[in-house]
């Protein structure tokens, strides 16, 4: 029997409840009378009632949000929800109309289906550019790693029930429910009762190499990134997956990071196996550490009176276009045994998704490319997928990656030498990315130099198809604006503009905040 627990219920304060004082709403007769007679006394009465009404609305709004921010002082999620409410943001709502193939769609169910088709097709947008899906023929297949002996193969191990119980207890009960309808709150509160059954299911998945089909379905929410609301390219998909599948993924993820690799690899752990040039989704790495490393290298070059040409590479739909055959081949070359590879294959394939907005749900569509969006293992599998890129380019230039954000830079005492080295490295990178799509329109480059007399307009970088890459004087890299003089004036300018908007928001709504809440927002 499940333990019986008492839970108190508290009615939530709403804006309407906080504004019950508004019995002073201006009657229509007062407004009409003032317009008809145009007498000073009637207009004075109307203005007094109007001002009283406005003041009451402001007090009610202020009291409501003061209470909201006080209640959410220890819950960051609720705090930022209240901020969005105060700003009037509704980023997850369905647009009134969208444009698909020059056709305007207005029916909500049709719009949901169109979004699902758009997101599901993301992995196949550039299929015509992919040379092959044969793992043995693909140029990205790692050659530095030889296939290990079968008796020394790596394998996923069965899980201990204590591990599973601990993972269930740590569930964030506010997370949404997946397609399996298992509520995180239920899993958390009943963890000590059901953990043995969940452990059995997890271990059965590992030993048979099969993922339950309900764990491979995703409910996709819409997040508007900005721009026109009718353009589907301006929306980002947010996938809601099964809570149990994410727990299993996190436990498998821990196994991968703790593996003792074969001596033939000369690596002691996954962390040392991955390229040191990769900072994405790794412990003790962040956007700050990645950006600092690149900036420090540029500063060192300028201090040595060198010129540094830097290329910021943009990949289109990188996570969505991962080829499953190539990824499984790379996992095989890393040393995983047949059953483990079968588990990864089951994890990657047979997935489907639907778009869900409110009560409107689109039909499910199959997803046969890419790593699962919103998953735990997806980011790690992606950086394994592109791991050998840095080692290929290292002899020619310096390279750093944060997931798919790739930057190449070459330094030399002569500007032409730096640009020529960068051009050569870029062509090599293009060959390595034959299974991914390079977005030349968003791939930019900067020349960091202290020279003043150079004709910068004559300097060019081109792709293999002849497209000239645009040169910028400043560029935003991992949240930091860098400019060609590296004096950070662009970063300071962008930051002050952003802060000015936030300060105006605080000033305009100052009656809705206590000082502590203002500090948290700032």
TrEMBL record:
Start and end residues of each Reverse transcriptase domain: 204-482
Question: What Pfam families does the entry give?
Answer: RVT_1
Report the superkingdom from the record. Eukaryota
* Annotated CDD domains: RT_nLTR_like (cd01650)
- PANTHER family (alphabetical): REVERSE TRANSCRIPTASE DOMAIN-CONTAINING PROTEIN (PTHR33332)
Task: Provide the protein name.
Answer: Reverse transcriptase domain-containing protein
Q: Which classification does the entry list for the species?
A: Eukaryota, Metazoa, Chordata, Craniata, Vertebrata
């Amino acid at each position: 029997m499940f333990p019986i627990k008492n839970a108190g219920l508290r009615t939530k304060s709403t804006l309407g409840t906080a504004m019950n004082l508004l019995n002073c709403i201006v009657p229509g007769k007062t407004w009409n009378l003032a317009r008809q007679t145009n007498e000073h006394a009637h207009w004075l009465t109307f203005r007094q009632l109007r001002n009283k009404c406005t003041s009451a609305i402001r007090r009610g709004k202020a009291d409501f949000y003061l209470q909201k921010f006080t209640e959410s002082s220890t819950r960051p999620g609720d705090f930022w929800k209240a901020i969005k409410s105060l700003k009037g943001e509704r980023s997850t709502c369905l647009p009134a109309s969208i444009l698909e193939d020059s056709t305007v769609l207005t029916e909500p169910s049709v719009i949901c289906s169109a979004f699902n088709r758009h997101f599901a097709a993301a992995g196949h947008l550039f299929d015509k550019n992919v040379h092959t899906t044969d793992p043995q023929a693909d140029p990205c297949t790692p050659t530095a790693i030889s296939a290990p002996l079968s008796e020394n193969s790596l394998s996923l191990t069965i899980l201990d029930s204590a591990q599973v119980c601990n993972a269930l207890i740590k569930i964030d009960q506010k997370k949404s429910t997946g397609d399996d309808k298992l509520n995180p709150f239920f899993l958390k509160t009943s963890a000590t009762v059901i953990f043995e059954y969940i452990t059995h299911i997890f271990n059965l998945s590992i030993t048979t190499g099969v993922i339950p089909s309900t764990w491979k379905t995703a409910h996709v929410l819409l997040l508007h990134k900005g721009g026109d609301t009718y353009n589907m390219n301006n929306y980002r998909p947010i996938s809601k997956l099964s809570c149990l599948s994410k727990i299993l993924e996190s436990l498998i993820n821990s196994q991968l990071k703790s593996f003792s690799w074969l001596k033939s690899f000369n690596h002691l752990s996954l962390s040392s196996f991955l390229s040191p040039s990769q900072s994405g989704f790794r412990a003790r790495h962040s956007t700050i550490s990645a950006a600092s490393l690149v900036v420090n290298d540029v500063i060192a070059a300028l201090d040595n009176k060198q010129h540094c040409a830097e290329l910021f590479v943009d990949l289109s739909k990188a996570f969505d276009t991962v080829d499953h055959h190539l990824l499984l081949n790379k996992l095989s070359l890393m040393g995983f045994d047949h059953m483990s590879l079968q588990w990864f294959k089951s994890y990657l394939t047979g997935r489907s998704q639907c778009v869900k907005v409110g009560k409107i749900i689109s039909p499910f569509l199959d997803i046969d490319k890419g790593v699962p969006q919103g998953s735990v293992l997806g980011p790690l599998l992606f950086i394994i997928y592109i791991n050998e890129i840095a080692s290929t380019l290292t002899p020619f230039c310096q390279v750093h990656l944060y997931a798919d954000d790739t930057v190449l830079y070459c330094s030399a005492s002569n500007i032409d030498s730096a640009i020529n080295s960068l051009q050569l490295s870029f062509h090599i990178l293009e060959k390595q990315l034959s299974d991914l799509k390079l977005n030349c329109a968003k791939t930019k480059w900067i020349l960091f130099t202290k020279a003043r007399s150079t004709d910068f307009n004559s300097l060019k970088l081109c792709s293999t198809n002849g497209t000239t890459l645009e040169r910028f004087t400043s560029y935003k890299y991992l949240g930091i604006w860098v400019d060609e003089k590296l004096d950070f004036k662009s970063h300071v300018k962008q930051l002050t503009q952003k802060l000015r908007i936030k300060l105006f928001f605080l000033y305009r709504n100052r009656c809705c905040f206590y000082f502590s809440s203002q500090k948290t927002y700032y």
